Amino acid sequence: MDECNLTTETKYFFAVDLGATSGRTILGKLKDGKLETEELTRFPNVITQIGGHFYWNVLSLYGEIIRGLKAAAQLNVKIESIGIDTWGVDFLCVGKDDEMIHSVRSYRDPCTFAAMDDYFQTVMSKKDLYMKTGIQVMNFNSIFQLHAMRKEGNVAFENAETILFLPDALSWMLTGEKICEYTIASTAGLLNPNARDFDEDLLASVGVKRSQFGKMVMPGEKIGVLTEEIQKLTGLGEVPVIAVAGHDTGSAVAAVPATSENFAYLSSGTWSLMGVELPEPVVSEETYAMNFTNEGGVNGSIRFLKNICGMWLLESCRREWDDTVQKGHQELIAAAKAEEPFRSIIYPDDEMFANPASMLVAIKEYCEKTGQPVPETTGQIARCIFDSLALRYKEVFEYLRKMSPVSLDTLHIIGGGSLNQYLNQITADACGVEVLAGPQECTALGNIMVQAIASGDVDGLLGMRKVISNSVTPKAFHPQPSEAWEKAYEKYKEVISNK
């Protein structure tokens, strides 16, 4: 039976949660069916540009994990286990001497821009690939990164004995054990969604073999224990490292505090990911046309979802505005609310917003090309972004309503974006559905609770959601539909068609 084991003993779990702009280590405390979390360390995660490529500093991330483990050791509590989650698709190449070869390329590396089209022209059609994987076609999918590296004769690719997705690479650094966690692997565009394992033909199409990837493991399986070296570095003992849902969205979705199955979710952060949870993948002509994805979840579930460019738009603008601009989140929201609604609308997922030299310039150019007023002020730009995201959410939510086997009565917004009460409300208005916002730290909660399942302190997915529901109270936003939103949606569709 799926329920939490209401032990009175306090259990402590250590989570590493790495996002595309920052990372954290968190201590989770589970007792009496409730979970509390404490952030131990926080650190930036930046992309480094060198030699025309963009890389993640994986050794720096490893060092930050060690720093977090040292902080945990100083608390003098027993750490039951450790779990790591990260963003998807990126990977580390390891040589036959067990040494990493170069660093990890970022999914925003320009090498992927042409690789996808080249793959479709020289290897396999877009439709054939989607029908094999059920994965949303995006230029940075791992399959296209590998194709690009192969075409350029990349040294790391050519000498890789093992290819480890990022959470698996960091777990290997901690334990010496090489595995391939299912949810993170499912983002690659290399898996058969029904078999829940790699497709040999797809691997061959980019010049790699199944033997180059570790044993496929599911969330909740033990990877290994901290090496003796790390035990000495941190002051911890033989703490197990657990394969949680290594893809951060997989961990976040598992922690949605839902009390029924009639819900959709929106994981809101750098990326927005909107979807539903299904027992089996859905791969069809319709899902291909709409470019939906089927990624792995906890307990063998499928996260049927769509990636949407999220707070990346606003955060990129915030980095560009100088110190004379009031660019705090609350100041930007206030400035946006003061502007005319729906004056300028963009398509958030247009390729020109993927990694432009200037997001401000890209937004202005888009509006100019589509015959709209060009946003100039901070408030106009912020309003353009918020309105456009809400309208994009409406578009995707309507797709989900058509394809979901259950009615969708609620939209759960989780992640850092759940703190934006203004965007939450206009999302409820646009979609015409109740929005329940929070918790902000869903990814860390899911990471910790999968560890709790592994330790036997919680039984299954429903059990972990019961604990989370007992521990957090989402904020409700009730829809206030209006004719203005319907007119704006018609304008949005017209803008897309005219681009």
Structure description:
With 499 residues, the protein is an alpha+beta fold. Helix content is 40%, strand content 22%. It has 19 helices and 22 strands. The strands form six sheets. The protein has a seven-stranded mixed β-sheet with strand order 18-19-17-16-20-21-22, sandwiched between helices. Helix 15 crosses helix 16 and helix 15 crosses helix 19. The N terminus is likely disordered.
Helical content band: 25-40%
Intertermini distance: 52 Å
Please count the helical segments.
19
Q: What's the overall geometry?
A: globular
> How would a crystallographer describe the biggest sheet?
7 strands, mixed
Rg from alpha-carbon coordinates = 22 Å
Which structural traits does this protein have?
7-stranded mixed sheet; globular; 499 residues; 40% helix; 22% strand; alpha+beta; 19 helices; 6-stranded mixed sheet
Quick take:
It is built from 19 helices and 22 strands. The chain has 499 residues and is an alpha+beta fold.
Which helices and strands occur, and which strands form pairs?
Elements: E1 11-18, E2 22-31, E3 34-44, E4 47-50, E5 53-56, H1 58-73, E6 79-85, E7 91-94, E8 104-105, H2 111-122, H3 126-133, H4 142-152, H5 155-158, E9 162-165, H6 166-175, E10 179-181, H7 182-185, E11 191-192, E12 197-198, H8 200-205, E13 215-217, E14 221-225, H9 228-234, E15 240-243, H10 248-254, E16 263-268, E17 271-278, H11 285-290, E18 293-296, E19 302-309, H12 312-320, H13 329-337, H14 359-369, H15 378-403, E20 410-414, H16 421-431, E21 434-437, H17 442-455, H18 460-471, E22 475-477, H19 483-498
